[in-house]
């Protein structure tokens, strides 16, 4: 199993840094900490631009340091924190420095590949890391895993599916895992035709039926790119080959994923669709926290449904499998093109179906080189984004 095991400091409050504290996962992490304050001390909180919210959270959680990525907002952060003992910092380097502070646990909840450098900084000092930021693992999987092994860091999956599989696998050895089954809600367009999706608006795509999440992951759920990224994430986290990872659509989002073992047993993790459950599992691991999330009432739910994903209407899953099998730079191209295309869709520059189509075009440029250093990954990611921007511009021109 690739996910490592380390022992926490017994009986001591765990010190925590939240990268991306103002986001959906960051906010849920803050809520769990507020519910169990005796268990945690907050070291640093980082955010990109929501400076008022960052300052409010830093005061509420009594953080040592608050970091705003946009340096022009540092004066505002300083003035909001005046009279407190909280250090205010600004700029992208300051986010990496926050990850380097000696917190026991780092919640990696920045969205997109921008989270790679800070997450790697936490890995390089051997921290316990709650990994929500799947894009950084997708674009730099081999690099991150070798750094985890070299520095004795521990990755605890926070993405609900991977957290579910991690819980199901606990106590079994890697060789006894036969198959992973990722569940997918199907997103807001589960029952939509391709024709109807071609006219889908930003608002339609953001209206997720089950989960309340940040904008990027909500669009990824609508295209099923989220499940595609999760397939790649599962491959890296658990060291399982692509053909042994399957996806099943489960609209109620109660079973968060399943693991089938060589003896024919299948184990699942169930809970209401609330990110505080996997977040609490990672924050408290290996012990359990007391968190007041709604408990399951199976009789009220009545039935759980499952269906095979339709890769004709949602080609993202097929592309993720192709990217994994192509290897080399394919996962970087896959992620970078998706990030660029999602941003363009959110700006209403391209149509909904253009998103996955731009990713498919990007994969034509795959290169078999294995990129092993951070500098190589970042440089390749930048060039992949430039090419994807050109695709966006061509499609935006066609649309007018
Ligand atoms: P979000 O958009 O709500 O929050 C993103 C956070 O990252 C914010 O705090 C923002 O300030 C920060 N950020 C944005 N751009 C940045 C940059 N360039 N540099 C530094 N910080 C930056 O996102 P989210 O929905 O909380 O998702 C965060 C990550 O967790 C994503 O990778 C997502 O796929 C994953 N995830 C989210 C959920 C969920 O329920 N929201 C579930 C599973 C996994
Ligand atoms: Mg997920």
* Rg calc: 20 Å
Annotation, overall tally of beta strands: 11
Helix fraction? 40-55%
The secondary-structure class comes to alpha/beta
Order of strands, main sheet, comes to: 4-3-2-1-5-6-7
- CATH structural architecture of the domain at 14-158: 3-Layer(aba) Sandwich
User: Could you say which overall geometry the principal axes of the C-alpha atoms support?
Assistant: globular
Order of helices and strands: EHEHEHEHEHEHEHEHHHHEEEHHHHHH
Q: Bin the strand percentage.
A: 5-15%
Structure description:
- It is a single chain.
- The protein is of the alpha/beta class and 400 residues long.
- It has a domain at 14-158: 3-Layer(aba) Sandwich (Rossmann fold).
- Helix content is 46%, strand content 15%.
- The protein is built from 17 helices and 11 strands.
- The strands form 2 sheets. It has a 7-stranded parallel beta sheet, with helices on both faces.
- Strand 5, helix 5 (116-124) and strand 6 (128-131) form a beta-alpha-beta unit.
- Helix 2 runs parallel beside helix 3 (74-80).
- The longest helix is centred in the C-terminal third of the chain and has 26 residues, at 374-399.
- It is globular.
- The model is unreliable at 1-8 (pLDDT under 50).
- The site of nicotinamide-adenine-dinucleotide has 27 residues, from helix 1, helix 6 and helix 10.
């Amino acid at each position: 199993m690739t996910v490592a095991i380390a022992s926490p400091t017994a009986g001591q409050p765990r010190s925590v840094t939240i990268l991306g504290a103002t986001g959906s996962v960051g906010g849920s992490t803050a809520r769990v900490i507020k519910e169990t304050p005796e268990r945690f001390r907050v070291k640093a909180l980082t955010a990109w631009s929501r400076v008022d919210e960052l300052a409010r959270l830093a005061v509420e959680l009594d953080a040592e340091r608050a970091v705003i990525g946009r340096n022009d907002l540092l004066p505002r952060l300083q003035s909001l924190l005046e009279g407190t003992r909280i250090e205010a910092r600004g700029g992208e380097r300051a986010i990496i420095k926050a990850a380097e502070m000696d917190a026991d646990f780092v919640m990696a909840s920045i969205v997109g590949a921008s989270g790679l450098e800070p997450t790697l900084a936490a890995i390089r000092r051997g921290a316990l890391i709650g990994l929500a930021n799947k894009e950084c693992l997708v674009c730099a999987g081999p690099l991150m895993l070798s750094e985890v092994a070299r520095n004795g860091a521990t990755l605890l999956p926070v993405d609900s599916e991977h957290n579910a599989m991690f819980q199901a696998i606990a106590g079994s050895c890697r060789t006894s895992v036969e198959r992973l089954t990722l569940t997918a809600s199907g997103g807001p367009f589960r029952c939509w035709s391709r024709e109807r999706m071609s006219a889908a608006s930003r608002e339609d795509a953001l209206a997720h039926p089950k989960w309340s999440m940040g904008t990027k992951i909500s669009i990824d759920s609508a295209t099923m790119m989220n499940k595609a990224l999760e397939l790649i994430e599962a491959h890296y986290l658990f060291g399982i080959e692509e053909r042994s990872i399957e996806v099943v659509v489960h609209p109620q989002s109660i079973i968060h994923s399943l693991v089938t073992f060589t003896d024919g047993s299948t184990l699942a993790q169930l809970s209401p669709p609330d990110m505080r459950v996997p977040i609490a599992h990672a924050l408290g691991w290996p012990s359990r926290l007391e968190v007041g999330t709604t408990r399951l009432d199976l009789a009220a739910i009545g039935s759980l449904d499952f269906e095979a994903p339709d890769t004709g209407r949602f080609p993202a899953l097929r592309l993720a499998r192709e990217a994994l099998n192509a290897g080399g730079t394919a996962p970087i191209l896959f992620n970078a093109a998706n990030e660029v295309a999602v941003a363009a869709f959110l700006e209403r520059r391209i149509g909904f179906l253009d998103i996955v189509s731009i990713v498919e075009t990007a994969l034509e440029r795959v290169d078999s080189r294995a990129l092993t250093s951070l500098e190589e990954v970042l440089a390749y990611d930048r060039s992949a984004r430039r090419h994807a921007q050109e695709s966006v511009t061509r499609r935006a021109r066609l649309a007018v």
